[in-house]
Amino acid sequence: MIHAIRVFALVALLVLTAGTLSAGLQLSQEEIKRIQDAAPATSTVKPKQPRLLLVFSFSQGYRHSAIPRASRALEILGKKTGAFETVESENLSVFRPENLKRFDGVCFNNTTQLTFEDPVLRKSLLDFITEGKGIVGIHAATDNFPTWPEGQELLGGVFEDHPWTADGTWAVKIDDPTHPLTAAFGGKGFVIKDEIYRIRQMNLRKNSRVLLGLDMKAEQNRKAKGVKSVDRDIPISWVKTYGKGRLFYCSLGHNDEVYANSAVLRHYLDGIQFALGDLQAETTPLPFDPMSFYDQRALTDLLGRISTYTHGDSRAALSGLDEFIRGVDDLPEARLRMEKQFLEFLKGSATPAGKQFICMRLALVGSEASVPQLAGMLADTATAEMALFALESIQGPAADAALQQALVVHKGRTLIGVITALGNRRVEGATAALQDLTAHPDARVAVAAVSALGKIGTPAALDALERSKKSAKGEVRSSIAHAMLACAGRMKSQGEKDRAAAVYTSLGSPDEPVAVRSAALRGTILNDPGNAAGTILTTLRSGDAALHPIAAQLVGKVPDIEGVRAIAGALPEFTPAAQAQVLASFAAYRDAGVQKAVVAATAARVPDVRIAALRTAGSMGDAGAVSTLARAAASSTGAEQKEARSSLYALRGAGVDDSILVMLPRVDGRTKVELLKATAERRITAAVPSVLQAAGNPSGPVRIESARTLKSLAGAEHLPAMIDLLTHARGETERREWELAVAAAARRIPDRARQDEAVLAAYARTKDKQARASLISVLGKIEGPASLTTLRTALKDPDPEIRLAAIRALAGWSAADPYPDLWAVAQGAKESGHRVLALRGSVRLIGLDSTSGAEQTVRRYKEAMALAPNAAERKLLLSAVGKVPSIGALRMAASYLNDAELRPEAEAAILNIAEGIADTARPETVRQLRQLMASSGNDVNVKKADALIKNIERLDDYITSWDFAGPYEEKDARLLEKSFPPEEPAAASVQWTAFRGMTDAGRPWLLECDKAFGPGDGVVYLRTNVWSPVDQKVTLEAGSDYGIKIWVNTTRVHTNSAVRNVAPGTDRVPATLQKGWNILMMKLEQGDGSWGACLRVRTPDGGKLEGIRISTTQN
Amino acid sequence: MTNRSRSTRRDFLKAASAAAVGAMGLPLFIPSSALGRSGAVAPGDRIRIGCIGVGGMGIGNMQAFLGLPGVHIVAVCDVDAKHRAEARSIVETKTGRKGVAEYNDFRELIARSDLDAVSIATPDHWHALIATAAAKAGLDIYGEKPLGYSIAEGRAIVDAVERYGIVWQTGSWQRSVRNFRYACELVRNGRIGKVHTVRVGLPSGHSISEQGGSQPAPVPEGFDYDLWLGPAPSVPYSPNRCHWNFRWISDYSGGQLTDWAGHHCDIAQWGMGTELTSPVEIEGVGNFPKAKDGLFDTAKNYRFVCTYKEGFTMIVADRLQQPKGMGVHFEGTDGWIWVDREGIDTSPKSLLTSAIGPDEIHLYRSDDHHQNFLDCVRSRAETVTPARVAHRSIMIGHLGLIAMKLGRKVRWNPETERFVNDPEADRLLSRPMRSPWHL
User: Could you tell me which of A574, A567, A632 has the C-alpha nearest to residue A596?
Assistant: First the structure.
């Protein structure tokens, strides 16, 4: 290569750039030797003259890693055989005519997304080949020229995607076994691990000779993810002539190994020699026959199986036929042949279920050819139903005609089905016959005919309905009204508004039911938008209350704002119910006139109207509504207040916040409170100074609300002022609010280390006792780094109130750190109240301590129990003990069973603990539960204990000794279906490891895969061995969260693609154990969240199996 | 197994109804007589509801309504006598009021003259027939998702709802959960830039509840099996065919895909603001089981790509084929938002506390799905999940199913609701109904 570059550098400086890729390639000597060894020793033909091949390796899109290897391979191919020399370039200007003319051929080496938007380059490349030179494309070369279809077609097509990915091994067939370019493969198909492209062919089969293609009858190729049923012709390699020149393309070459494959290298070499004009080869296109995929035998076989199908049988043949249809249904010829066979099938002696299935499929693929036979099936009620499914669906006039003829022949259900089919197909020719049937003595037939006319919906159908209506009664008559509404809707959408209007008018008659009149009124209003407002007004002013709801609802559809204003102006004239509904409809308009009416309605007499007005004001209003809403919120309660508030919070428009800001200082009392709330809800941070001012208001509620607002809005800069307000708070409630507000503002400081600074400073300088206690409380809420030290000191403060505040603050701490401090207080404080509070805090913190073991926790609870001054405290303690899943806790709780006062708590704790520790101390747990049952007077607890014992006993035999392999993860794969090494024949090489994922004390049977392997998608295999004394039938009782498969001695006995919660024994699988050791393997699929399974071996009827042994090592 | 699966719809309903008591006032009341449904005045001025289909979800919805103020459940209807007896006993126990009527046939319930609304929770193949009949009677409807068994049946429901001006709420209750609304508001307000991809992860496989086998068996006493089948093809009864498991059988449902598209595709459409339109190209692959058990035949694994002319792609797949599993994952130029029943997550994280200002886009706010229906029955306003929106949500599931059944790309016209020059695909828009049933 270096030599070639130097030679070329002398003739065209332009070509070379520093970016030449080969410079970055460090192929090892070994790799080079592999290519060297694989390359043919001699070329198939001697070049007619020295040949120079341009290897172009520049990508404007994805850069393939194979590029340098391909360059080297091409260089070696040329050099070793003497067929050509190569020059590599990454500079597009090499395609300028003056540069290109020196070459005999160009190879696009995995280039992607080359735009070639310079017309000079496009013409140069086309001239180059037209005038007799050669073009070669390797792998990604079809992924170029996105804006140049002519260039895409030159290569044969354009890349779409590659369902056959680089990690798969795919079967390749030879399209032309005698072609000189396929001699490289001995003319025989082969398999190769490589990435294969699906391209959009561009006249490829018309102007090129395809040499290799994917064998789309091969199962592995069909099963690749993303393969479509229309994927039949997937060409890989082809040649063509173009003007006087030639093109050779091969899509192989993504993977490195391909470049050391001697057959592929020979194919490249022959292809290049063809393109260079040295190797003569046929280029006339070979036809591709998609019908070769129509497997007559397969279809016959499937139909044979379906001919004996009855309900309850396996559906395998049915789904096989669906798969078959999917595979060929884009081929008209295939559809016709298939249909013919379906019709033969229907003539034969197949089961009714088989025939029904075929009829349902004819509904999807049948043509007019099926019509006569299907029509014949109407004669027999046993086959009429299935035939109708198909007949209704088959397009074309033949089915229309057959159905019309059937109208006069059939009766009962078949007749109704025929009528319905005609209606759904909108067969206008059936109108007259259907009108006759509206007078049929069987009302079901008549109603079906009416409904069919409604669907046909033509003026003639409408006429027919109107004629029928005169004499119709009951159910038929009301169905006519509905059908006329359907017709009128169609007329309206087709511009026949007058005809529609007439229908709506006639159906507005008071004789009609309210639903019909409502629909008719709606039709009238929407049909004539110009008069919509007038019609609505008239209706709402009328006493016809039944029509008010629909009229009110349609206010939102009035097209002219004047009309809406007129309705708004008349609002007080309507009934309260209608007013409320009209107000809801006003939400669609943002108009000052309408808004005025809405605002006025907020003062209406009827609460429902006020509420509706308040709600609408929120969605349509602007700054002008602030005052109304704030005052409404201030003066109301309940639902009305809720509505006023949420509307105030939702008001839109630039001026709303400003209005609130302006109004806030000017009002007092409840209105001020409401505005403060709005300030917080709307996050008007600019209002903080005003809120701070309000905090000094003489009214308590205003001050409290100010504190709450600042809790939402204030930042660090406001802390000093807020601390000041806190220290001057009046009354307990207000002080609590300020404590919360100050803590919230402090916690908003991003630097955790500085959050408590201001409060600590204030504490240090404050003398007032109450203020100091408050600041301590705040420190307990901030939990800043220095807070703890200060609070510990405060525990020793001379003032009991300060000490009390510190105890409270520490008792609420979010971690166990202050436990020793509180415990000391609990033991030693003078004041009994302090001791009790500290004790409660201690108990709480013991439970928070995740670092100490169960033993230590129980010991601390026992110590605390000794200090507990009364039964109430001891009860609290026992319930805390009940949360510790340990045998020590169980014994501790059990020791209080004889204390009449504490007994209920002790029982509850025992039950709670027993649920948590079942596996570690099963016998003792059962003993303690039995003791509880024997002595308890509480039936509920006895039942619970009994259930727990049963549960523990139920756990018998669940297998806990397993080895695992995996997890195997693969993005987007159907993991349960996909085969991984443990289920492959060569499973011996799989690495098995002891499974340790049984941590759920409450469910000892549970194999917790997520604990063992972590969450995420994947599958894992678990394996163990079962020794059986005899050959015997057994039941495997298994459970899993997601998909599960089970094998016994490499035979798969169970598959369940489940999504559920793992529970014991949800899957009961019959299996056979041989005498001696049996291998038991489970495959478990994971989805999201937890991932577990369980399995035990029982007798076929679920009983205990004697004499079996479980071992991962067979000993 | 996860909380997301554990928090079943029924749990939600319980929580929702518990929360509703007290939290929700009775904002607007207009009695039945004023609505003019029937001229009858409802005692105590309550909304009078009949519940059609009171197994699984139907019972859940009924209990949710029972927990709300201003409701009378006056009648229950189910083709299974056990279901309706249980439902009636629940109502009578809860309200201490006897006289709840039981019906086998929904037509008799709808014919009552004293109803304001019905709640419909039947298998999918019944939705359109019952809903259109109720709409013709002028009844407001709380209807379970998916809207229709087919696109055509969904369209029939939308047309009837609009023609009769009734109030419709779809059981896509995720719209009444804060996280979902918030996620959609973040997307609508451009917090993650321009969204180019939405990934929708739905459950995979079948969650089958064994009911006693797939073999044909005698129809149990008290179960009107022919009425249960209704418009679906005649086949012999098997226990596993009916009740919960109907949804794995293509005669009655589209499987997990259509069972859930009304939830997560609905949220995806809400976030993208494409609630009243549809994708224009759909392509994907489904794995239809070779049902050995003889019954369940809907797609277990499925993945399809929807291209919208609005300039984004929606990838709908079972959770095993989605990088983030279950939920809706909006991917934009400036970040992403993931939301599911388990929670919400965003990148950047700061979005989680990003407030939606008063002047930004606020989506329809409903905090209780059943209460929202009742409010709208009174105000005549549109619910948070009206039929025309639900129709578009479930359409995505149906379109995906059709593309997968055909095994090829299909092109769709959202305006005409037909495929583009594709009569073969158009055939899958509806399934004929077994006589004597018709819309």
Answer: A567
* B233 to A389: CB separation less than 8 angstroms, yes or no: yes
- Taking a C-beta distance cutoff of 8 angstroms, is the pair A251, A201 a contact? no
Find the helix packing angle between A638-650 and A669-681, rounded to 10°: 50
State how far residue B167 is from chain A, nearest Cα, in angstroms: 10
Please indicate whether, in this complex, the C-beta atoms of B28 and A315 are within 8 angstroms of each other: no
Cα separation, A107 vs A123, in Å, equals 17
Q: A494 in the Ramachandran plot: left (φ > 0), alpha (ψ -120 to 50) or beta?
A: alpha
Q: Which of B4, B28, B33 sits opposite A612 (nearest CB)?
A: B28
For chains A and B, count residue pairs whose Cβ atoms are closer than 8 Å.
265
- Per the structure block, which two tokens stand in for A223? 């099963």
Query: Any idea which of A222-236, A670-684, A866-880 has the lowest mean pLDDT?
Result: A222-236
Mean pLDDT of chain A, nearest integer: 91
ipTM score of complex: 0.91
Q: Which among B25, B325, B406 has CB closest to A1088?
A: B325
Q: What is the pLDDT of residues A456-484, one digit of tens each?
A: 999 999 999 999 999 999 999 999 999 99
Smallest Cα distance from B52 to chain A, Å: 20
**Which residue is listed with tokens 């036979």?**
A373
pLDDT in tens, A498-541: 999 999 999 999 999 999 999 999 999 999 999 999 999 999 99
**A443-456 and A474-493 helices, crossing angle to 10°:** 10
Is the overall model pTM greater than 0.90, yes or no?
no
Nearest CA to A245 out of A385, A359, A133, A92 is that of A133
Smallest Cα distance from B326 to chain A, Å: 8
* Residue at token pair 């009829």: A359
